[in-house]
């Protein structure tokens, strides 16, 4: 009996780590300490954008994301933005979701995004190294 419980616990833990780790570095993000790099807006819609940052790193992509959100969030309740290294890239360096308040985040994410302070930016970097 004890072996079955231990095996189930190990399996559950492994599954949890696999499911939560598959998206890259997921983190709540405050404004970065570095200046935003030069970036080009490849596509832009009312509440989302794709930014081109050549040779992007996690740090430069995050800085560009925060810069774009800062310039575009004034009258919005939520925004989505992602950074790529090339215009025809199939891989996203980092992506972010920004929510003006807890109520908006709760409705749009089903409670997945939570924070201690609002507005809030949730950043994930699935390809920080450039694979």
Write the layout of secondary structure elements.
Layout: H1 2-21, E1 25-28, E2 40-44, E3 48-52, H2 58-72, E4 78-84, E5 94-99, H3 102-109, E6 120-125
Parallel strand pairs: 3-4
Antiparallel strand pairs: 1-6, 2-3, 4-5, 5-6
What does this structure look like?
A 6-stranded mixed sheet has the order 1-6-5-4-3-2. The termini are far apart. Helices cover 33% and strands 25% of the residues. It is globular. Residues 1-27 have low confidence and may be disordered. With 131 residues, it is an alpha+beta fold.
In short:
With 131 residues, the chain is an alpha+beta fold. Helices cover 33% and strands 25% of the residues.
Keywords:
6-stranded mixed β-sheet; globular; 131 residues; disordered N terminus
Beta content comes to 25-35%
Order of helices and strands: HEEEHEEHE
Mean pLDDT: 81
End-to-end Cα distance:
44 Å
The best one-word shape is globular
* Total strand segments: 6
Helicity range: 25-40%
Structural category is: alpha+beta
Low-confidence stretches: 1-27
* Rg, Å, rounded: 17 Å
């Amino acid at each position: 009996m004890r072996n079955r419980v231990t095996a189930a616990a190990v399996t559950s833990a492994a599954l949890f780590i696999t499911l939560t780790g598959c998206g890259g570095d997921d983190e709540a993000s405050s404004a970065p300490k570095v200046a935003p790099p030069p970036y080009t807006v490849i596509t832009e819609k009312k509440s989302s954008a794709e930014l081109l940052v050549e040779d992007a790193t996690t740090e430069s992509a995050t800085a560009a994301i925060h810069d774009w959100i800062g310039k575009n969030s004034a009258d919005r309740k939520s925004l989505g933005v992602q950074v790529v290294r090339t215009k025809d890239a199939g891989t996203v360096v980092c992506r972010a979701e920004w929510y003006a308040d807890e109520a908006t985040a709760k409705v749009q994410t089903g409670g997945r995004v939570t924070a201690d302070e609002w507005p809030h930016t949730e950043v994930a970097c699935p390809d920080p190294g450039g694979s």
